[in-house]
């Protein structure tokens, strides 16, 4: 088994590589750097154009490996690192193929800096893989750096659903296995139109407080039922926006936030709901999306 990280020269940058190194150290496994370059469509064209494209693609793959080696040299000491290259019309499909070939345990993707109020931007490649990958997919926040080793804490997003409970159990088992503390956290966003204007802000606040109390009771039940250990930190965070609720908790260096997906039986393997998508976009720490 190995940790697979997608990388292209001057495309994703360091955050994905840093996170992948931390994941490999935590899981005590190897690291595979995967580069997928575009493959031309089989349409008639001038031979010179085809040759130029093939030359560009070959140089892109070589530059990506050389750049990744340069960055990883001082970071990945003691970790076995291998490189895989692939041409495919779909970058996402190419990465999925490599994950299957090397028996990838987790797929790491860097994120693009987001404009406006979000922390991360989910591109088309990441979006496809978040829905279709058979293994957990980690999205590394822009600017993420870990120099000292593996992960230091796992936070698990809990929404009281059956799928979310399964995620909590998996997170608890992983945290125990890798010797990191666990925090289970529930987020609630009131929104601008949570209740009709005639209800009033004070009534909204009291209802939100009552909901938060119920959410904390649900979290406490996780300990009573043995889903998590007694030393697990439980937290309920409320606010007026996703940016606010994701910025409120205390995040430590080397932390990862896990969220789940809902399994589906149609063309795609899972459904990434609006809630999880917003958590990914606004999370200040890397997010691990675990298939349902």
TrEMBL record:
Coiled coil: none annotated. Residues 2-139, 151-291 form the UspA domain. SUPFAM superfamilies: Adenine nucleotide alpha hydrolases-like (SSF52402). Signal peptide: none annotated. It comes from the Bacteria. Belongs to the universal stress protein A family. This is Universal stress protein. The lineage of its organism: Bacteria, Bacillati, Actinomycetota, Actinomycetes, Mycobacteriales.
